[in-house]
Amino acid sequence: MGHVRALDGFRGLAVLLVMWSHFIAVSPAVDHSTVIGRLLKSGYYGVDMFFVLSGFLITGILLDAKGGKGYFKVFIMRRVLRIFPLYYAVLALVYGGAWLFAHDTFHLYASGPDSHLWFWLYASNWGMVAKGWGTPEGEWLITPDGTSLGHFWSLAVEEQFYLFWPWIVAWLDRRKLAWLCGSFLVLAPVMASFLSDFAGNSLSGYVSTLGRLNTLGCGALLAIAARSPEWWARLTRPSGWVFGVCGAILLVVLGRDANFSVWKIDALSVLVPLCFGFGLVYALSPRGGAWSTFLSSGPMRFFGKYSYGLYVYHHLLRPIWSAWLWKAWILPTLGSGAVGVAAYVLAAGAASVALALASWTLLENPCLRLKRLFTYTGNRNHPA
């Protein structure tokens, strides 16, 4: 599968949802006490969109490259060129700055439960599990003042997926791989639930790689189906109404805060991959209509192109956005109501876009050009 514009928009919508949910949390007026408040703060499910899309794209790339020369090396090097430069540049700035300008407090991050090694090793999600073990609410890792790296847990999940998934794809034939991916839809929420029970809090299951295999596996299963014309046709025919029905039920469950579970499998762990999975299929379907047109539009593809930088920067500097934009400017002049929140979302969003554009121009794109040194045998214009 070559470059598909609708998938850029799918990625763009995912990052916009995440940014929205983080930005509107600045106002206490937006809370979980009302249906509207709960829906407005549910944008963090954009992370699940990322995982479905990642499972789809990465598995597709690996299936197409399987058996070719340099299968592992090319995949790893192309992922390194895409992910590492920005990730490690940010860590170097955050912890290098803390060492230089806040040397007296650097010991807080040098070792112990908030050790910066969790981030350098792409294991911050497991660092959160370890730190929060036995606490009722779970624990986020503390990072230097003026920064927030809490969202890096999802990047850790992605990187861990990149490390083990190529081996599994290489080892299993497509039929067995499909069964494994299908089993993740059931096993992942069960494993996450058990982990949460043992850890004593729900956050541990939420950020664990085990608990995210349902969305990653859903995307992977769709990638396998996409390489079978018969199965892809079976999926695309009902994709529109399945996407619509699952989306409507998901909104009801989120709005009414009415999640429920049967044994260890809760409704959201099933609804979310189904909704976003069929949303992806519908976007690629000839019947995609307005949904596909929307995702393929210029603005959505713009946010998709710069989604990595947007995801990293919007939350990384959230303490600064809150202090400088919200508390020092918007709150005193516009208040904490809808107008003030909208102004903050636009201002923080614009600042994040500016940083993402600069990052793309100065760091990410120059590194991406080096991908030409690592090409798959029989390359089919892989976007990753």
Features:
mainly alpha, 384 residues, 18 helices
User: What structural class do the secondary elements suggest?
Assistant: mainly alpha
Distance between the termini: 11 Å
Q: How many extended strands?
A: 2
Shape: globular
Largest sheet: number of strands, sense, barrel closure: 2 strands, antiparallel
Describe this structure in words.
The protein is mostly helical and 384 residues long. It has one domain (5-373). Helices cover 72% and strands 1% of the residues. The chain has helices at residues 5-24, 35-40, 46-65, 71-101, 107-110, 117-120, 124-132, 152-171, 174-199, 202-207, 213-226, 229-255, 267-284, 289-295, 298-305, 307-316, 318-334, 338-368; strands at 261-262, 265-266. A two-stranded antiparallel ribbon has the order 1-2. Strand 1 (261-262) and strand 2 form a beta hairpin. It starts with a helix and ends in a 16-residue tail after the last helix.
